[in-house]
Amino acid sequence: MWIGPDATRDGAKKIGAKSDAKGTLDFPVPADVTGQYIIIWYTGLHADDQGKRRAWLDEVVVTG
Fold first, then answer.
1. Which domain holds residue 11?
2. What are the CA-CA distances from residue 43 to residues 11, 30, 31, 35, 52 (Å)?
């Protein structure tokens, strides 16, 4: 996950990564990191029951 000034990873600060993630995840953001965009990058998708590769992201909550 990155936070940055625009909708690209150029100039964005990486704040964390998870492998084989499921359930609720928390990514603490250092106080010196600012930006307008949260970028979530999927690097691998698993096949569903029909052989289609999918990922689900139900909700993102930002607090602070």
1. 1-64
2. 20, 24, 27, 22, 15
